[in-house]
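Tutorial handout. Part one gives the primary structure; part two gives the three-dimensional structure as tokens.
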Amino acid sequence: MVSKEIRDIIENYLEAYNSFEIEGMVNLLHKDIIFRNISYGETTTETRGIQAFRELAEQSSTMFSSRRQIITEYSVIDDKVEVGIDYEGILAVDLPNGLKIGEKLQLNGKSKFEIEEGKISLIEDYS
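Part two.
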């Protein structure tokens, strides 16, 4: 798969994510998708398979009234991609860490993607 096709898949995924289009996200995923969220070097969330990913995506979507991931850097090696991400979200719920409804959450991080059979087979979000 060429770099342009891979980039298009990832950009389409992020567009669906930013628009809260769960079905659009899931349609781009391999049936055996692995998702991990890694914060300060520790895995805080991990799912395996489309159904588990869908459930997490649906749950996560209720936490924000708006959200946006923007690619700041992009590199491809074979079918592996690493992107720098600027994240911004407006909370729709109060969080246990003290952040309140309506507050803006801003993070810088990176995401790693792997592509298998034309679908995203791995997403690792690092913050």
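Part three, for discussion. Residues 3-126 form a domain with the Nuclear Transport Factor 2; Chain: A, fold (CATH 3.10.450.50). The chain has one domain: 3-126.
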